[in-house]
TrEMBL record, chains A, B:
Residues 434-453 are annotated as: Disordered. Pfam families: Bac_luciferase. NCBIfam families: FMN_nitrolo. PANTHER family: ALKANESULFONATE MONOOXYGENASE-RELATED (PTHR30011), C2H2 FINGER DOMAIN TRANSCRIPTION FACTOR (EUROFUNG)-RELATED (PTHR30011:SF16). FMN binds at D63, T106, H156, Y160, S231. Belongs to the NtaA/SnaA/DszA monooxygenase family. This is FMN-dependent oxidoreductase, nitrilotriacetate monooxygenase family.
Amino acid sequence: MTSTQPRRGGQVHLNAFLKPPGEFLAAWRHPHAVADAGVNIRHVIELARTAERGTFDAIFLADLVGVPLTSQEVLSRVSVVNDSFEPTTLLAALATATTRIGLVATASTTYNEPYHLARIFASLDHLSGGRAGWNLVTSLNDAEARNFGLDSHVEHELRYARAAEFHDVVTGLWDSFDDDAFRHDQASGVYFDADKVHWLNHAGTHFRVSGPLNIARPPQGRPVVVQAGASETGRDLAARVGEVIFTAHPTLPAAQAYYADIKARAATAGRDPDHVIVLPALSTIVGRTQAEAEDKIAALRSLLDPRVALADLTYRLGGFDLTRFPLDGPLPELPPSNQSLSGQRQILDQARADNLTIRQLADQIARDDRTLVGTPTTVADHIQEWFEQRAADGFNVIFPYLPDALNDFVDLVIPELRRRGLFRTAYTGRTLREHLGLPRPPSRYASRSGAPT
Amino acid sequence: MTSTQPRRGGQVHLNAFLKPPGEFLAAWRHPHAVADAGVNIRHVIELARTAERGTFDAIFLADLVGVPLTSQEVLSRVSVVNDSFEPTTLLAALATATTRIGLVATASTTYNEPYHLARIFASLDHLSGGRAGWNLVTSLNDAEARNFGLDSHVEHELRYARAAEFHDVVTGLWDSFDDDAFRHDQASGVYFDADKVHWLNHAGTHFRVSGPLNIARPPQGRPVVVQAGASETGRDLAARVGEVIFTAHPTLPAAQAYYADIKARAATAGRDPDHVIVLPALSTIVGRTQAEAEDKIAALRSLLDPRVALADLTYRLGGFDLTRFPLDGPLPELPPSNQSLSGQRQILDQARADNLTIRQLADQIARDDRTLVGTPTTVADHIQEWFEQRAADGFNVIFPYLPDALNDFVDLVIPELRRRGLFRTAYTGRTLREHLGLPRPPSRYASRSGAPT
């Protein structure tokens, strides 16, 4: 059983959630925004180096494999996800432009082949000297499905079943060669030991994959697996395979309940709960004074077009067309959907709890009222409280607008966290696993021979 | 009709075919080889920078999505393809470590989804400022098929039909946004012009893809498409979609015949033959004197294990087990195969023409007798003759061992080519298209509106 006593000592883990020009829908209209931020490699390298200067554990890249279907007119007013680098190629480029920070990319198990993903993340781990992480997702919406021969998103339970098998195949492929397989013995002519390569010969419900992978075992053994399961099925997957859990909760008690639940599920699955690192999202805007911080967010919010807010709510609710209902009436019951169940549930709860009209809800979500607006002290207080009260092992820090919110976090909040002994002052490890205090996983073949069958 | 008169003036194009530790099967045993060359990013960056110093048009990366199935014992003596970076992530890493050289990666249309590949190559083109190229292949062998749920490689005609449709989808996705779609107009709040985004809505035999791609049109409009079709079907595809054609011929007349044929097919397909650049493979080992060059290849050949030579022949013949036949007898008739038809045909022709036994054939292929061993003058003579006699627009330069053969080519051959006015002395362009003299393709929507249907 995991302790529920307040935690003393220890340090938080922080991921930098980089989505230039920022998470806020109108971030690109900010005067300091870089116009083509999503595809400007010089800009993104600068952001990555700032995050590395702040000794973040990792850069975290979200992803969609499509453009959310909404009205073309409204879509044209939003930068997010419509023009950005593909995450694995971007992280590979950042691997040679940084030296220590971890590199986590999102990739979907629903619309990929495990052999390709295993290979890409193994390659990224080798390129970066052991800094790769894979955020395993099952994708979100119908717009993605329609780029892969389907009419609508794969059904929720089916895609989680596929995800579990996908993970099993990928980790098996990463173990294709034993850690000490490659001898490079020029004198004897033995490149690798013949008994240290393993054919996976996987034949399951969703995949048949022979292997072996055509690359040495990754420096980390396996890249770090990140997961964000929130539904029942999602939590079970997260607890079984996730090493870092990305989550989001509006209140301390909700976060504590999730934290305890995931750690308990991990223990039930036979894992060490300390090796399942729970990182809630934390969106912040920081000022030297509270007034300065408030001014910053007010300036940002003034840039938001109400049409964009409503379109964003439509998208978050699975494309359900809200324009058929009175804007100043309540949110109607929604039809069943295959999209992210937990995300929709949170929005519905928010609307019902505060009796919001559609217009109010759209405005509240788009205004991003959950963003913590404060001074270095108040933000550090929040981080410390959630950490000590076992609501978090650290945070996925979300930047409403870039580069300013990242610069402010690194220059104002991180020094305060360091002063309190809550965060590293320099990297002590070389790999992402070392930053996170996660052990290097043994190969599944650690005590077997690997003759092909 | 393309001229058959000897060519005067003009310059050759050169790709550096990088496959560390080199193309020769025993290259990894050379004293200057880097032990873990396939996954050593510092080493590969050094190779890339050497190629850039030599003002090569591009780095060219071959690929297989699997480990060729052969005996485990023999496999363990070969470095090639068993331990190397995945090409697109490697090129993304090289994009930030180089400034001008083109970056061409091989990717299979048989075992990929067009949305992913379109996105990865668009991303690579943005990352590199317009230096990306895609070598479109249909994959080679059963070992690859078995990593994607199949028992054997997809039938030849079917995979070429799929490849043609795949290419059509990918180029359509690259055109999702018009070149001038993104306005980033902070004042009006218009991120892109609503009428300048295009849903592909492709519904074909092999793919249904909605689009749009979630990234701006690549800097080159479309990354350069490289193709290596050699069979009848392959040549037709190459002539229809290839902008650079990678090929291989043992003699000048054979190369001239292929060159004329591809240019004629391109013209028949309505294309400008000058925009189809034919680059035969050229494997070279260069010495300051002929004797020095001969010594180098003799030293390299002495490292070859005969078991490896036989296994390599087996692999090249589609996995057909030759150990059942007398080693000193003739090559038997081979069963039909779905693998690379042209490669097998060339090997059979070679065996029949010289009346070779299995042992002799294996030795000859593994010894790589087609490697041009000479001085800077003789190698430059060969390049000049093939160029002037319309057998080539340049070459894919293959390095039997790395880094030496690349260093020698850059330090010895390229100065000689420059002295003759046959090769650039510095990059004049910024993009791969500019290096190759290829026009920037217009969008397929250049004169249409893009309302979703």
